[in-house]
Design brief:
heterodimer; A: mainly alpha; ABC transporter involved in vitamin B12 uptake, BtuC; globular; B: alpha/beta; Rossmann fold; four-stranded parallel beta sheet; three-stranded parallel beta sheet
């Protein structure tokens, strides 16, 4: 059974980083959902990407830490910008976030083109793949997430002040900069949004966080198993399973709604 | 109730099936392949060359399919298992196949790390084109690949060098098979020489034809067959074409009388068609790697033959 050992040694760090990602991202996902700014995550992640590519522009072969620092700085800066607009109405907020996304994306393309190096290489260095995560990565990232999680528990700010919003978006930037470079954009977004959406369809708001955690965990376990057994790319498999649960929930919810309508009609 | 039971038993069968599939895949791999040298390659071309040299002494695994961009290959669990069991790897290098290097790193297999005996520097001795000259401290603006253009295998002359590098390294690791590898190398290089001569003769009347390429993929190929590359659709490698770049390029193409636009199947065909409409240069789809499941492209020599004939057809159709 030599190969089973190989498979485990390769899949375990990936699995543990997934658990870490779930713990922090699902939490942030619920908060993002409350704010009604679903696309904030994409904008923040893109600004982190922009910051990291600027590190490549300024330095010759920057270290991992330096690119991360630039990613964080940039995402905090844009986080500041986004948090300054949080008091406006939802339509404006979403529009504004769209503008930030377009801005950071185009700036990234400009920076990459000015680098004059093959942009595919830089893109590869800046976005991760969960299969390549090492134990060292798992420990580092988990520590970052742990510290941020504790900070959020200590500074539970209920009032939606500028300070609380800035705290939220800057810590969010810190998390996303690290997680995108480890696990790739798609998986990070899926963990943020899909479990929360699924749980909103099925469970009462009181259990949103708990049930989202469960949905993310179950999808991850099934996704990893399917990926190893059928030799499918790991992150896309996990995402597909996660979204499959969402559609099942949607189906159940639609049937519930139909029944309610019928009852109303008959009464 | 009955329906539920039925579903439950169905689910059980599916699960059992999956577990069995998994076990078979494990057992199947460890039987009957005991003595062959395990070689892992990022592209079909290198796998083909290694098979030609190694013959029945090697078990070559190719990790990409030749139809998609070799810059980006989505890693799957099995690929790392192949790396863990590999004795020899033949990467492209020059930063093209970063994913392949990540797999090597992830495998933690010391036999195939860069610098160890199982790592072949495939391009050793190849004259790398387009190596940017810049002085330390100067801004990098305008540079291309920092180590030069990595698509070196598309020149048949370079394929011979790659074959010799593989032969040399395999003979070093398995000195008892040296004679066998050398003989195979001789046969393979002979085949390339023959194809080279044929194709050069066929193509001689088209020499000097001007072309635009999508990415800097066919630079070595064009250099070998004396096709003049006038420019690229990508303003910089990996950056999609911009409208202003396309219009500048179109002007240049009209001035220089460019006859063909060459691109790989995974590029954006709309960009190519748009440029072709403005300039009346013929879109010509070429392959950058062999594709085992397509007979016309089944190995490296077929690939080169296919590409050169495709170009001849395009030019002939245009000049009629």
């Amino acid at each position: 059974m030599h190969e089973l050992k190989d498979i485990l040694s390769l899949i375990l760090p990936a699995f543990f980083i997934s658990l870490s990602l779930i713990l922090i991202h699902v939490y942030f996902g619920t908060k993002i959902f409350e704010r009604g700014v679903i696309f904030a995550d994409i904008a923040i992640a893109q600004s982190a990407f922009l910051g990291s590519s600027i590190a490549f522009l300024l330095f010759d072969n920057p270290s991992k830490e330096l690119t991360y620092l630039f990613g964080v700085l940039s995402s905090v800066l844009f986080g500041l910008l986004i948090s300054s607009q949080m008091k406006r109405e939802v339509v404006f907020k979403e529009g504004f976030i769209g503008v930030i996304y377009a801005l950071t994306s185009s700036l990234s393309i400009i920076v990459l083109s000015k680098l004059g190096r093959e942009s595919e290489h830089i893109r590869y260095m800046l976005t991760g793949n969960i299969l390549f995560v090492s134990w060292e990565d798992v420990i580092k990232a988990s520590l970052i997430y742990l510290v941020i999680g504790i900070l959020h528990i200590i500074f539970k700010m209920k009032k939606e002040s500028f300070v609380s919003e800035f705290f939220f978006f800057s810590t969010f930037g810190l998390v996303v900069s690290s997680s995108v470079s480890l696990a790739g954009v798609l998986l990070v977004f899926s963990y943020l949004i899909v479990p929360v959406l699924t749980s909103k369809l099925l469970f009462s708001p009181r259990y949103t966080l708990l049930s989202s955690y469960l949905i993310a965990l179950i999808s991850t376990i099934i996704g990893f198993t399917l990926s190893v057994v059928n030799d499918l790319p790991t992150a896309p498999t996990v995402i597909s399973v996660c979204i499959l649960f969402f559609f099942i929930a949607l189906f159940i919810d639609s049937i519930k709604n139909l029944k309610k309508k019928k009852q109303k009609l008959s009464s | 109730m009955r329906k539920q039971k039925k579903i439950a038993s169905l689910a059980k069968i599916v699960l059992l099936n999956q577990v069995l599939l998994f076990l078979f895949s494990i057992l199947g791999k460890s039987v009957g392949e005991a003595k062959k040298i395990k070689v892992v390659s990022p592209i079909c071309t290198f796998a083909d060359i290694a098979k030609n040299i190694g013959g029945d002494r090697v078990d070559v695994i190719n990790l990409s399919d030749g139809l998609n961009d070799p810059h980006f290959v989505e890693p799957k669990p099995s690929m790392i298992i192949h790396m863990i069991n590999a004795e020899v790897v033949i990467p492209i290098g020059l930063r093209l196949d970063m994913w392949f290097f990540s797999l090597i790193e992830k495998s933690a297999n010391p036999k195939i790390f860069e610098g160890s005996s199982g790592f072949i520097r495939t391009y050793e001795g190849v004259r790398i084109l387009e190596v940017p000259e810049y002085k330390i401290g100067q801004p990098r603006i305008g540079d291309i690949h920092p180590e030069g253009n990595p698509h070196y295998w598309l020149s048949p002359d370079n394929a011979k060098i790659i074959a010799m590098n593989i032969t040399k390294k395999l003979s070093e690791i398995y000195p008892e098979e040296k004679g066998y590898f050398m003989k195979n190398a001789e046969i393979f290089i002979g085949k390339i020489d023959e194809a080279e001569e044929d194709l050069k003769k066929e193509f001689s009347r088209f020499e000097g034809v001007k072309a635009i390429q999508y990415h800097k993929t066919f630079t070595y190929f064009a250099d070998f067959f004396k096709i003049k590359i006038v420019g690229e659709l990508e303003p910089y490698p990996g950056i999609p074409p911009t409208p202003s770049h396309i219009s500048q390029l179109a002007e240049k193409m009209k001035k220089e009388r460019v006859e063909i636009i060459i691109y790989e199947p995974f590029r954006n065909k709309k960009d190519v068609e748009r440029l072709s409409k403005i300039t009346s240069a013929t879109p010509t789809e070429l392959y950058a790697d062999c594709v085992p499941q397509i007979n016309e492209l089944k190995d490296y020599i077929s690939l080169i033959r296919y590409n050169i004939r495709k170009i001849m057809m395009s030019i002939e159709g245009k000049r009629k």
